[in-house]
Amino acid sequence: MDYSYGQNQAKWICHPVEEKEEGRVPVFRRRFEVSGEVRSVLLKITAHGIYEAEINGRRVTENKFMPGLTSYYYRIQVQEYDVTTLLQEGDNELRVMVGDGWWRWNNNFGYTLALWSELTLHYTDGSEETIITDENWDVGVGPIVRTDLQKGEVYDARMVAHGWQKAVLCNEHTEGVLIENQSVPVREKEHFPGMPTHDAAGRLVIDFGQNLAGYVHMTLRNTIHGQTVHLKHGEGLDRDGYFSTANCDGGRKEFQQITYICKGAEMEEYTPHFAVFGFRYVLVEGIEAEKADFEAIAVYSDMEETGDFRCSNELINKLVENARWSQKGNFLDVPVDCPTRERNAWTGDAMIYCKTAAYFMDVRQFFKKWLVDQTIEQYASGKVGITFPSTSSVHNPEELKTVQAKDPAMALAGPSGEGNIGEDSVGWGDSAVWIPYQMYLMYGDKTFLEEHYDTAKKWLEFSLRCMKEQNPMYADKLLYANGDGDYIYDTRFHYGEWNEPLPPAPEVIELFAKGGTAADYVTHMAKYGKPEVATAYTKRSCDNLAHIARILGKDKDSAHFADLSAKIKAAYDKYLIASDGSIQPGHQAAYVRALALDMVSEKKKPLVIAQLKKELETADYHLNTGFLSTVYLLPTLCENGLVDEAFRILEQTTAPGWLHPITLGATTMLENWNGMDVFRDSFNHYSFGAVCQFLFEYVAGIRPTFENPGFKEFELHPIIGGSLTFAEGSYKTLYGTIRSCWERCGKRFVYTCTVPEGTTAHLTLPDGSAKALSVGTYRFEGEQHG
Ligand code: BGC
């Protein structure tokens, strides 16, 4: 809803002293009188920054980090609260603190924090009064001296709000349309008491036992006036036992810190207001362990938990817990890659994981809100942001020039009109097609398809245009001579498998040895293209869009994309899969991708599977897939007769593999399989948690169907394997909870399942027999085949 019309007269207001680098945290105040009996009072409020509002000293809501993150230049959410019980007869005060939030973090959107609000009092006599933000408000500063989502907060408890002046109207980027709240509220969730310990240097470190995103509530006793307590938040102790943030701070000096200056009291308590950190440990300075208590509070979008999986392998159970925790740690209004270093809402990560996310929690509204920003920010070229809402720290083309002059690596930053070089990347941009498609599958909600069809089509048409470009590097290739160049995508920069646990290619090692920068690397990659990856993902998007178009009754589009898909598949099979089934550049990903995305002719399939088997053997049954293919690895093995191999890889406890970090005490998913061994990279990167999709869909065997999405009809196809003697999955659908459970003893199995009312399950038992089941709880026994 657009609030900028009708009786809504509120204005954006800010502090009168111009803000640039200083980082002032304004406190806004409006005093007013209530005379008469009030029936109801409604507060509408939003901010450039994030706000905390109080009426007469009482918080208006427990929700955090509002108004949430949207493409602020285009749309900004307004929250509404019924605050009737907070008002009193006579004098009242509405007070709002506004912290930097996403608006000023890295100066993403602007420099000035601002407030917009309307308080409407409905009196019992039928009259109405509205108090709006305008020049009648006061603004000062308070005890929060500085605050930044990532750097942290400096709080001087000796101070009270002061320096009151009249607020002025703000005109920095006030063009965003005010809309109704669409965010799932962010709330304080689990609490973890801290265990005091010491690192190798003898420093006081608090261990909360769980890596999470949130902050620490501290209770300090017998403090003295001016005593300063510092907290630094990190994910681990390094290999020598020292507290360190080197794995996740991206080289930042000011990182995840709290500075609290005591007023001096028998007891004082503090919880940060506008900062959120990724951490399990906190380094404490300025107070002894006996004089303080620390409690970590996890903060994330408060979604209902919907699914669970358990089995006889405790390490796999812990893997499920860790994946769930990485979801919690990264789903704070938008899905970010990690809660520490980057905190960007990367499309690739979300695309890989969105279905798993839906098994764990009801993410329908979470993705619904987020995807709108992808559409809003889509470039004229059809590219979509690699991260969105865009947090590029570049506000317009002129600013981009200035920034690039200082730092050429910022050539990667948008908006440059056509989208940056990273935004060509398949597997990331394909989120525009994939996420709505998967959300439709999981929730049966067609509006995902209707609302995002044009965005998806524009993205795909962009990729198809790029597919037609010729790469001079490959000018002498047969495919060009044969006139098939239009169906192989061999140009542009693509992240590709990113993070494959393999040594870098020799020319990349050479490039960095010669002092090459990240930007040089990107240019280098763009020169070569990634035909095996780019062609496959573009074909997958053709398939998805053909299907979406069919669902939406756009038959012409559907036929068009289906036809392209067939042509691309034929070209891929002919030019990119050699006669012995090998695919460049080898390794598991090449084969998994080709099989999973249906790029292989029936004729070559056995050869490709044989190549994959060889790769598994060479890797001693450890995975070596990267960012994109890991989610497909185990399902692809099962679909192609390699069930034993799939379970063997799943249950590996040495690196690279999902269980390895768990043997070292991981409590979340890592960015790198051996990240804990070498103390490198983020310890809370959710995307590899997508292996849980395999646990739900293959081991427990619960799978949705496109024919009747949202689990109105679903498959039960449990797969018994590895060391597991039992497995149980459950998933709460709109109709009720599905349960699927097996136990085995030798070849004998007992299978039980629950089918919710109004749904149909198509069951395939481990003995190969099939049944259609309606509502009820069932038990079957048999002998596993094969
Ligand atoms: C992020 C990822 C992201 C990737 C792009 C990384 O720095 O942390 O999760 O998808 O860049 O390849």
Features:
19 helices, 27% strand, binds beta-D-glucopyranose, six-stranded antiparallel β-sheet, 786 residues, ten-stranded mixed β-sheet, 28% helix, alpha+beta
Shape: globular
Q: Tell me about the biggest sheet?
A: 10 strands, mixed
The end-to-end span amounts to: 59 Å
Query: Strand portion, in percent?
Result: 25-35%
Compute the number of strand runs: 36
In a few lines, what is going on in this structure?
The protein has 786 residues and is α+β, with helices and mostly antiparallel strands. It contains 19 helices and 36 strands. The strands form 8 sheets. Strands 11, 12, 16, 17, 18, 19, 22, 23, 24 and 25 form a 10-stranded mixed β-sheet that branches. It has a 6-stranded antiparallel β-sheet with strand order 5-4-7-2-10-13.
Give a structural overview.
The radius of gyration is 28 Å and the shape is globular. Helix 13 packs antiparallel against helix 14. Helices cover 28% and strands 27% of the residues. With 786 residues, the chain is an alpha+beta fold. The mean pLDDT is 94. The chain has 19 helices and 36 strands. The protein binds beta-D-glucopyranose (BGC). The site of beta-D-glucopyranose has 8 residues, from helix 3. Residues 337-338, 342, 346, 348-349, 495, 498 line the site of beta-D-glucopyranose.
